[in-house]
Amino acid sequence: MPIKPGTLTAKGRETKGRIVAAAARLMFENGVADTTVEDVRAAAGVSNSQIYHYFKDKTALVRAVIEYQSDAVIEPHEEWFAELDTMAGLRQWRDLVVRKQRELNCRGGCPIAVLAGQLAEYDEAARLQLAHSFARWSQGLRTGLLAMHANGTLRAEADPEALALALLASLQGGLLITQLNRDTKPLETALDAALAHIEAHT
Amino acid sequence: MPIKPGTLTAKGRETKGRIVAAAARLMFENGVADTTVEDVRAAAGVSNSQIYHYFKDKTALVRAVIEYQSDAVIEPHEEWFAELDTMAGLRQWRDLVVRKQRELNCRGGCPIAVLAGQLAEYDEAARLQLAHSFARWSQGLRTGLLAMHANGTLRAEADPEALALALLASLQGGLLITQLNRDTKPLETALDAALAHIEAHT
């Protein structure tokens, strides 16, 4: 039976983490619907009783994968969020995002958006969890833009929340079109337009 | 065995169209991976030999669904594309897009993007077909912006192709965040930012 997080031993946490990492990789590579608990069990190299000890069913695995992918996508950017309070900082972040896609050969798109496309209409709890992940992302971008507003870089009448949301939308739409075309140009164009729009409010 | 399009009778075209419409609905509602040929056959009310007469396998059905959804999404906008050559025309189109999402209670997102999220990494032919659908969309937006450039509404140094691509990215990203939050605000914010960016080039 599934056990509560706080009660895991170090070995238990390691095993559970290995299962989630395997599930995230398989669901990213093969899609959520085509990934079975048995596939995850085999890829993680654990027994049947072990996997069901931590996850009562595939739904529980999907929940854990959404958290895992959200952390994996957002955490590396967290150090950047504090620096998104100047146009130069925003442009460096833009270059980082584009470089990352180039390294991935524009494959995969945004892991949170991919899960959203596969789950939002079929699993209401997953939709809410994914909306929360986007809110975390958006919050990170807002931090910098609110700081730019507070320190006077953005004009008083600018709406930093709206600018952050528009930047997030340009990022997501740009990533999707870049993924489909295996070309970073759409992402670059989308982010450059969003940054120019922000700069127009300085 | 599958037959060539030109050789279909009116009745054959009707049957084939009914199968594709059923497949599109089921793949939109339940996801591509969870839709079987048998599900489509039952929903379309055709026999086993009929469905395999038109589609040799699920892959062939997916191809037809991508075309069907692309036409369904793009064709109603085509009459608009010709009017996207003024800021007022662009704003009317923005209102139309937002109203449509409100009517749908923000469910479903963009049908082409949803297929992209489910297929782009798992089916290379589908990825190319979906990239082509996005190019058709983009071409429609470009038509208006190129006209605005040609008639001097957009300044000479503006890049109408980049503006069209940025608008498409804002639309897609805005639709995704609107779908996840069941709220049209993200879509409105994203489109308003993209239109303000275009207007800054007038």
TrEMBL record, chains A, B:
Entry keyword annotation includes DNA-binding: yes
Residue stretches making up the HTH tetR-type domain: 13-73
Entries under Pfam families matching the protein: TetR_C_13_2, TetR_N
Record-linked Gene3D superfamilies: Tetracycline Repressor, domain 2
Keyword hit for DNA-binding: yes
Species of provenance: Kutzneria chonburiensis
Keyword field: DNA-binding, Transcription, Transcription regulation
Chain residues forming the annotated DNA-binding region: 36-55
The protein's name: TetR/AcrR family transcriptional regulator
